[in-house]
Amino acid sequence: MKTLKRILMFTYLQRHLKKMIPLINELVKQNDKVQLTVILMTKEEEEIAKENNINYRMLDKFTDTKRNYDFDLGWGLKPLINAIDRIKPDLFLAIEVNYILRNAVRYCKRIGIPTLIVQHGTPNKYSLHAFTPFEGDCFAAWGQFTKDFLVSHRASGDKIVLTGGVSFDKTNELIPDKNKIAGDLNIDPAKKWIVFTTQGPGAGNRPSEEEILTGVTEVARQILQYDQYQLIYQVHPGQPVEYIKNFVDTVEGHNAVVAKYKNTEELMAASDGIITFFSTTAIDAVLMEKPLLLINLTDDKDFFPFVKMGAAFGAYEKEEIPTRLEELLTKAYQLKPFYREAQEYMNYKNDGKALERVISLCYRMLKL
User: What pLDDT is stored for residue 257 in this prediction?
Assistant: First the structure.
């Protein structure tokens, strides 16, 4: 009887697991070649796994020590090491690196287990701790932008393989039902929709709370001049709706909708333009060829290269927001000639075959 190669996949946040679902589903289909064990850490992940019929094991099953709270990073390393010892995988597969994963990768290296890390977010100088030093055997990167950035910060280019982003494979195929979305959000489907995807203060306090307040309120105020547009704030999973709503409600007479719609990509696909700070939804916007406005009121202008490449408008001062918003609404045609180059720079080949390339990479590392 043929011996299956064992893969241990570990995630520790719901947004990580969501991006791994296509990969999980495909590896499960390959059950004549590999045996996949998915290990999760948090209750949010467990709920997502159940909703998507994913077989999983919780990290708690690999230790007798009780965690202090759900997202207990200090507790999580030992049970993960125990899981590696018990399962003895032929490949350890994870998504980027934090305290738990960096040490798990080091442990795998010491005992001879290959490690593959899949990109989750866009690297920047404030999140370098999640990327470098890169100690795994291989990093599956979305595109040349990621590789250029990491190599410029001393990561080994030999360990970086361009695959494209698995989560982007279906971006261009989305056919949203605008009428259904309008019904869910109680808004007019006949209007043009501008979706502002928010985010909370991240690494390096970027965006800062002041920047979020300024960007959110100024857009809500300025768009009142354009009756044919409906502004929709799609609130980040890590933010309460009330946090953004409280900002928006300071704008007298605003007609913006603040929500957490169940599928951000579908909402974006139904829209006529996207605004964000430097959320990865900016990449989705470019891949969908949606007019994009990036608001960056800090002294760091280069989270994404899209403005320099001509594929987005950029507001770098509060005073620029009205002008750039008008450009978004009236001069979107200026962006079209630059989409393809930006798409392929961020998402390797942008051909919808990233999943195939990641699976192929897994096979090569498993010597199948």
Answer: 97
Q: pTM for this structure?
A: 0.92
CATH number, domain of 54, equals 3.40.50.2000
Identify whether the C-beta of residue 132 lies closer than 8 Å to the C-beta of residue 153.
yes
Same domain, 123 and 198: no
Q: Are residues 266 and 360 both part of a single domain?
A: no
Q: How confident is the model at residue 1 (pLDDT cuts 50, 70, 90)?
A: low
CA distance 297 to 269: 26
CA 329 from chain center: how many Å?
26
Which domain, by its residues, includes 39?
5-169+352-366
Per-residue pLDDT at 361 exceeds 80: yes
Q: Which of these ranges, 52-56, 145-149, 235-239, has the smallest mean pLDDT? A: 235-239
What is the domain count for the chain? Answer: 2
User: Given this model, what pLDDT does residue 109 score?
Assistant: 96
Q: Give the side-chain half-sphere CA count within 13 A for 122.
A: 18
CB 146 within 8 A of CB 240: no
Question: Are residues 203 and 134 part of one domain?
Answer: no
Q: Are residues 140 and 277 in the same domain?
A: no
- Strand ranges, E, within the chain: 5-10, 34-40, 57-58, 91-95, 115-118, 138-141, 160-162, 192-197, 229-234, 257-259, 273-276, 292-295, 313-315
